[in-house]
Write a structure and sequence with these properties.
Structural class: mainly alpha
Radius of gyration: 20 Å
Number of domains: 1
Oligomer: single chain
Number of strands: 2
């Protein structure tokens, strides 16, 4: 029980509760059910992207192109809607998932088949995806009046008091929890990140597993692309610019090891929720939202340092146990 209370998830939950309580002392309306639902809904795109990023980081890779993938897929969905306004939302969702997965597969192929470092690949594709948006639109925006009503209304429609956007975050999280714990691919991702050499001897194809991780990350980024564009009813070249930093921060704060092989879906969700609360709380306490990037960066450094210290502590325990065994 004590070990569970000391877990990263418990510490994060405690930090979120303390943060919300402090904000509530200055602005009681922040903790009303409607506002908390709004905070959760606003954080849902970050949760969806963070789950995909976690899968990639588990395999000792990183995907810095998720925000650009979101922007490009979202822009394409918006352009399709302008050209065919009567197209059902279900078709748009399929398009977003397939296109996002395709863009993720490009990253995966380059990492798997050409053995290019993931950070180099995704930095390159991040720029390429943004450039493609500019080529498609010539820098022009697509605004709310150009989008059909059902296109923009879907993520805002409420079920049991929560917008569908928030429910997408919950459904994706539930699927991810089951997939990571119950499927061969999920277990393979942990194995590849924990010890890729040992994974090979157990019959796991490391490159193929990393490829699937990038496909999943891209697919979730594509889904978030449609939801983002429809929720805010605007599409432009620089949408979600810099958002990849928050996605990585959510994972690291949630306990996902940059070295791979360690991390949980629950921890990642709590990391995203922590950043979401910070983002929504800053204006309430009269702090400029521009501090959010600085806070995210500082949180990454603190979380990585915490992970490193925990790893060293575990190492000393193992060595001590080995000495006693002798």
């Amino acid at each position: 029980m004590i070990a569970h209370l000391k877990s990263r998830e418990a510490l994060l939950m405690g930090a979120i509760i303390v943060l919300v309580s402090l904000v509530a002392t200055r602005f009681p309306g922040f903790v009303t059910p409607s506002n908390l639902v709004a905070v959760f809904t606003d954080t849902s795109p970050l949760m969806i992207l963070a789950i995909g990023q976690m899968v990639v980081i588990l395999t000792r890779c990183i995907d810095l192109s998720v925000a650009a993938n979101l922007a490009l897929t979202g822009m394409v969905c918006a352009m399709i809607n302008v050209a065919m306004p009567d197209l059902p939302v279900g078709v748009i969702l399929v398009v977003s998932l397939v296109m996002g997965a395709f863009l993720g597969a490009i990253n995966g192929i380059l990492v798997w088949k050409l053995d290019i470092p993931p950070i180099v690949v995704t930095l390159g594709t991040m720029t390429i995806f943004r450039g493609i948006i500019f080529l498609l639109t010539e820098g022009k925006w697509i605004n709310a009046h150009e989008m059909s009503a059902h296109f923009t209304a879907f993520p805002r429609a409420t079920i049991l008091g929560m917008p569908i956007l928030g429910w997408f975050g919950i459904v994706v999280a539930l699927i991810a929890v089951v997939a990571m714990a119950r499927t061969k691919l999920g277990r393979s991702m942990y194995a590849v990140g924990g010890n890729p050499h040992a994974a090979v001897y157990t019959g796991i194809n490391v490159g193929r597993t990393q490829f699937y991780a990038f496909v999943i990350s891209g697919m979730l980024a594509g889904l978030a692309g449609y939801l983002w564009i429809a929720r805010y009813a605007v599409a432009y070249v620089d949408i979600a610019a810099g958002f990849e930093l928050e996605v990585v921060a959510a994972c690291v704060i949630g306990g996902v090891s940059i070295a791979g092989g360690a991390g949980t879906i629950i921890g990642t969700l709590l990391g995203a929720l922590f950043l979401g609360v910070v983002k929504n709380a800053l204006p309430v306490v009269d702090i400029s939202p521009f501090w959010q990037l600085a806070i995210s960066g500082a949180a990454i450094i603190i979380a990585v340092a915490f992970n490193a210290q925990s790893g060293r502590s575990k190492g000393r325990v193992i060595l001590k146990s080995a000495e006693h065994a002798q």
